[in-house]
Amino acid sequence: MSPWAAFLGLALSLVFAPQGVSAGPPQLVAQTVAPGSEASLTTLDRDAALTGSQAAVGRALPPMLLRDRYGKPVELSRLRGKPLLVNFIYTGCFQVCPTITRNLQKAVEGTVNALGAERFTIVSIGFNQPFDSPQAMNSYALQQGVRLPNWLFLSPEVGDVDALTAAFGFSFVQNAAGFDHLNQLTLVDGDGIIVRQIYGESFSADMLVEPLKALVVGSALPRQNAVTELLDRVRILCSVYDPKSGRYRIDYTLFMEIGGFLTFLAGLGYVVWRERRRKVAT
Fold first, then answer.
1. Are 169 and 196 in contact (CB under 8 A)?
2. Mean pLDDT across the chain, nearest whole number?
3. Is 98 within any annotated ligand binding site?
4. Is position 181 annotated in a ligand binding site?
5. pLDDT value, residue 147
6. In terms of C-beta density within 10 A (0-12 exposed, 13-18 middle, 19 or more buried), how is residue 149 classed?
7. According to the annotation, is 97 in a ligand binding site?
8. 160 Cβ partners below 8 Å, 6+ apart?
9. Smallest Cα–Cα separation from 197: which of 148, 163, 235, 147?
10. Which pLDDT band holds residue 115 (cuts at 50, 70, 90)?
11. Are the C-beta atoms of residues 140 and 91 closer than 8 Å to each other?
12. Structurally, what CATH architecture does the domain formed by 54-250 represent?
């Protein structure tokens, strides 16, 4: 890596570094519904949510009992033995969750073709209890056209939701528009240990195939490079909840702040360079 690339990576990492956020309950912020309006919605502090999400890496699957879309009990810890892709949804969502499910299915279909459906399992968990019942989860799966045999739709007990979501580092908050939640896909190895968090509404096959291949054959997980990690942070921290559409959009003000910060660093570097040249000349 060139010195300039390393310098840029360091600068961006400083911009996106968590500011002393603990891995406790997600912090909340009030977001204005529209410019000039006094109405606001409670939304997640995305920096705190990301920190809590990353803190879950290394944890084991919690020993909780859930029910599948047909009402049969499924003990989460008994899913060990093959890699898992786990995400959280709520069936009353009409924009983000269906989009994530459809995009995940497209990406996973390519992974199934490469590895075989019997080599890994996808798990979608309904966190809005008691409304995300087995019947509701079954209807949701049918509406989204999910046909893969290795995809489970599970419903936890009402009293287990907080502990379950905390174990996976998944943050959500209810507001007048539904739920503001982290768009997170959790990768779990065959021993039931959380090894990676993947973020966003869309997932390419490349994001899933290589890590799953490594876990299936028992080799080390491919390391994410610094650019990928920074893009993950940008994907989360530059996304804000749009209460009008019920979807997430890019907040370009953060890019402007980054641009200003990099401009400041460039100016500072130029001053240092010019001063060094002056000293050499004298």
1. no
2. 77
3. no
4. yes
5. 87
6. exposed
7. yes
8. 64, 66
9. 235
10. confident
11. yes
12. 3-Layer(aba) Sandwich (3.40)
